[in-house]
Design brief:
mainly alpha
């Protein structure tokens, strides 16, 4: 194993020498490492003086962790420029041919460049964070708990791996440094939104939720690395000379995959949809397990937290039962018209949005949304169980009638997203990443149009005209 890692270290040493010779990268990196902590300290001091007048303890307690998160993020943005030109930059300079003609394996070359691309900004981020914490310890600012500090250090490493691995994937697939830099926004903007979400967790969340965000970042980083190695081919890197946006080829490729050789003879479901469904058997089983897990987690969470917010007296439970009976679904059963087209279009939009979120995150965000929906169902069942309504009765009359159509549709949609994530990180010999991505979108479109949309249509009709009657009869509302 050590012999296989030696070429990785050789490539890493070569890449490190190139970076240390470029002052245009070192100078802004040093500025962010040494100067930015002082700026954040001044801002933190001013914010503390301002919020002390209003007693905003929550802001003060979370101010230092928030500053640490930002200090660790900005050095990664500078080093992103270096990662973007890792392969394509050497190709333009004409220095990559000796490296690619060496007896090293593709994964050794890729990991060698990735190692230096991650370590350089990570060391700078850690130095900046340590310097900031030393200065904070000498001032009248609240230091975060050790557990939060550990989370922030690991989260900074996750951001570095995520951004650099994504940038290297772009560098491999691009034919010029200009094209790679233009695509940098597809990394910086999503990660910036991710940092904003993590900031919200720091201010209003808990350490346990932040650990979940950390796991998500690590999973995304691992998938980026796996995808980069899976689609790294020396011949592909040297063979392409210019990027072209051929919309006609994109549409023709998509339509070919979508039709799967069928004609206007009604055999599209048999020759196109059924093979796509067979490819979703294993992802469907995985999604079923994840949905059951999400439902159980939602049920357990509400069961645990309900007594903390609701007094156990008979009067409080009666009040809660009255509030439950006044929920929108109960109002709909008591005479307010429920529109089947609205339910259908809402479910279609939600399914399409989850697919888009999953497509840009290797399925992670899409699967999390599916688990969140399952968790909401579990939480509602637990809430009704707390007020004395049998969760099995509620499930069989209020969810199962339309759920027997809607839940399989959601399950298949989630399985398609999961299948896309697995296929993107699996080597596809003879196919470019763009061609694989088009094939996966066509596969999802087959299942979406041929199976999911009809199921959601039937589910909307049943949810509008059948479920309210069964639920009202079972609960005597």
């Amino acid at each position: 194993m050590l012999a296989k890692l030696t070429p990785v270290l050789i490539v890493a040493r070569r890449e490190l020498k190139d970076q240390l010779r470029d002052w245009r990268v070192l100078f802004p990196l040093l500025v962010l490492t040494l100067v930015f902590p002082f700026l954040m300290l001044m801002i933190a001091g001013g914010v503390v003086d301002f919020v002390n007048e209003y007693g905003a303890d929550l802001v003060i307690d979370s101010l230092v962790p928030f500053s640490i998160l930002l200090i660790g993020f900005f050095p990664n943005t500078i080093s992103l420029v270096v990662a973007l030109e890792t392969f394509v930059g050497e190709k333009e300079r004409g220095t990559i041919e000796p490296l690619l003609s060496s007896p090293m394996q593709d994964w050794q070359i890729y990991l060698g460049k990735l190692l230096v691309g991650v370590l350089t900004p990570l060391i700078a981020s850690y130095l900046a964070i340590t310097l900031y914490m030393v200065m904070v310890s000498r001032l009248d600012l609240n230091m975060p708990p050790p557990g939060i500090v550990v989370q922030l250090y690991i989260l900074t490493a996750g951001h570095a791996i995520l951004m650099v691995s994504g940038a290297i994937v772009i560098s491999v697939q691009s034919t010029s440094v200009k094209a790679a830099n233009l695509l940098a926004s597809f990394i910086i903007i999503p990660v910036a939104f991710l940092v904003q979400g993590e900031s919200v967790l720091l201010f209003w969340g808990s350490g346990r939720i932040l650990w979940l965000a950390l796991v998500g970042v690590i999973v995304l980083s691992t998938l980026f690395i796996r995808m980069g190695i899976a689609h790294f081919e020396r011949e592909y890197l040297l063979g392409r000379e210019i990027d072209t946006l051929n919309l006609r080829w994109i549409w023709s490729t998509f339509w070919t995959f979508f039709r799967s050789g069928t004609r206007q003879d009604g055999s599209w479901h048999r020759r196109a949809v059924l093979p796509a469904l067979r490819r979703l058997v294993m992802p469907s089983l995985v999604m079923l397990a994840l949905l059951l897990m999400g439902g159980w987690m939602g049920y357990a969470q509400v069961t645990t937290s309900a007594p903390e917010f609701i007094d156990g007296s008979v009067r409080s439970i009666d009040d809660l039962r009255e509030q439950v009976s006044d929920m929108p679904v109960a109002q709909g059963m008591n005479g307010v018209e429920i529109s089947a087209p609205f339910i259908f279009l809402n479910n279609v939009r939600a399914t399409a949005a989850m697919f888009l979120f999953g497509a840009v995150s290797f399925g992670v965000l899409g699967i999390l949304f599916y688990m969140l929906n399952a968790g909401l169902i579990g939480g509602i069942l637990s809430l009704f169980a707390y007020v004395g309504v049998s969760p099995w009765l509620l499930f069989s009359t209020g969810i199962l009638p339309h759920g027997m159509f809607e839940l399989p549709a959601l399950l298949l949609s989630g399985a398609a997203v999961l299948h896309m994530a697995v296929a993107l990180v699996t080597p596809q010999t003879g196919k470019s990443m763009g061609e694989v991505f088009i094939f996966l979108i066509a596969d999802w479109a087959k299942v979406f149009i041929g199976v999911i949309v009809p199921l959601l249509l039937v589910a909307a009709v049943v949810e509008t005209y059948v479920t309210p009657i069964l639920l009202r009869s079972a609960l005597n509302w």
